[in-house]
Amino acid sequence: MTTQDTLRPVFTETFPPRMEPGMLYVSIPYRTCGHLCCCGCGNEVVTPLSPAQWSLTFDGENVSLSPSIGNWSLPCQSHYWIREGRIRWSRRYSAAEIDQNRARDRRLLDLETTVPEPGPPSRLRRYLRFLRP
Ligand SMILES: [Zn+2]
């Protein structure tokens, strides 16, 4: 496994059982994107699309995701931006910054949903279940 510096968009309904490195899977029906962590660790990174989570821009060739991808729950804790299909590496966050980010994400989600939000890891599991029944 090597570090990725580019991601190519693949528009699909559901994610494949095994994601390929260097691909950014985009499911519009499920409003979710997925890719393998660009550090090369091989972990899947799922980014739900919503006003409180990530937004996707497709320029006809390449995609950008906003905000940055912070893999705080992975051992690698990598942090990068996906900009026009290119990976822009960002610095790692400190534990305090990660906590701040998580608290902010939860607040935004609380505003958006009426269901109590159990927190990022179970949210992720729910999305994965959703995509792979
Ligand atoms: Zn990684």
Q: Any overview of this molecule?
A:
The chain has 133 residues and is of the alpha+beta class. It has one domain (8-131). It is 23% helix and 30% strand. The chain has 2 helices and 8 strands. Strands 1-2-3-4 form a 4-stranded mixed β-sheet, with helices on one face. Strand 2 and strand 3 form a beta hairpin. It starts with 7 loop residues before the first strand and ends with a helix. It binds zinc ion (ZN).
Provide a short characterization of the protein structure.
This protein is of the alpha+beta class.
How much of the polypeptide forms β-strand, as a percent range? 25-35%
What is the number of beta strands? 8
Main sheet properties: 4 strands, mixed
Number of helices: 2
Terminus-to-terminus distance: 28 Å
The helix-and-strand class reads: alpha+beta
Q: Can you list the strand order of the major beta sheet?
A: 1-2-3-4
Q: Which stretches are low in confidence, meaning pLDDT under 50 for 5 or more residues running? A: none
Shape: globular
Indicate how many domains the architecture comprises.
Answer: 1
The radius of gyration computed from the alpha-carbon positions, rounded to a whole number of angstroms, is 14 Å
Query: What's the overall average pLDDT, rounded?
Result: 85
Helix residue percentage? 10-25%
Question: Secondary-structure map with pairings?
Answer:
Elements: E1 8-11, E2 23-27, E3 32-36, E4 44-48, E5 55-58, E6 63-70, E7 79-83, E8 86-89, H1 95-112, H2 120-131
Parallel strand pairs: 1-2
Antiparallel strand pairs: 2-3, 3-4, 5-6, 6-7, 7-8
The site of zinc ion has 8 residues, from loops.
